Amino acid sequence: KTFNYCRARFSNKLLTNYINFKRITIMMLSHNRVRVFRLILLTICLIQKTTVFAQIPVLGSCPNLDVVQNFDIDRYLGLWYEAEKYPFLFELAGKCITANYEKTEDEGFYSVYNKQISRITGHETGIRGSAISEKVNDTSAKLLVEFPSLPVRIHSPYWVLGTDYTSYAVVFSCTDFGGLVSGRMLWILTREQNPSVETLEKAYSILDKTKLSKAYLMRTDQTNCDYNSTSIN
């Protein structure tokens, strides 16, 4: 009887421990599912946020890319035509897009004026901003641009990845959303309104060097550009 009693108690204890272990395991799995679900939900929200700001969403943080060193901003100033770009919300209905950079009276500050013609209305629109170096006395081509008229006033990165100052420039911008997702923008600018194939090949070589995708590039329409149309600034 004593043996049977001890065996019964031992069996009940094993059963109780098994049940407790099973409960703990289920709780841990449920907790992990919640964490995974929250992570997925956060990632989706971040991707949607990059889409709202018209950036290409990419998993992972912003890359640390090489930029032009000993950047000669005086040679960079002047008029540039947009040849190609990553999809950008504020330019989706635009054509004949240009960017003009000039010195200002304030040391280290440069004016930015982007303009385009609407393919829908035919009206010319423009937006003014400013550019400064990311760091004081930094000679690399890492700048920050700001457009005060936008709903959200932020300094966006403006990195010149490559340029010869006379024919092409490749500009990159990236916003990091918590290290999970980054929103990327890229522009190929040219001095000529209709650049040659050789000029574009120079720009493409910069993308190949930095391992940035050419698949997202969209050609900017630079035909029938009548800048005497109604202007809206």
Automatic annotation (TrEMBL):
Gene source species: Corethrella appendiculata
CDD domains: lipocalin_apoD-like
GO function term, MF aspect, one: lipid binding
Extent of the signal sequence: none
Lipocalin/cytosolic fatty-acid binding domain residues: 78-224
GO (cellular component) term, any one: extracellular region
Family statement drawn from the similarity comment of this UniProt entry: Belongs to the calycin superfamily. Lipocalin family.
Protein's name according to its UniProt entry: Apolipoprotein D
Subcellular location: Secreted
Keyword entries, A-Z: Disulfide bond, Glycoprotein, Lipid-binding, Lipoprotein, Secreted, Signal, Transport
Gene Ontology biological process terms, A to Z: lipid metabolic process; response to reactive oxygen species
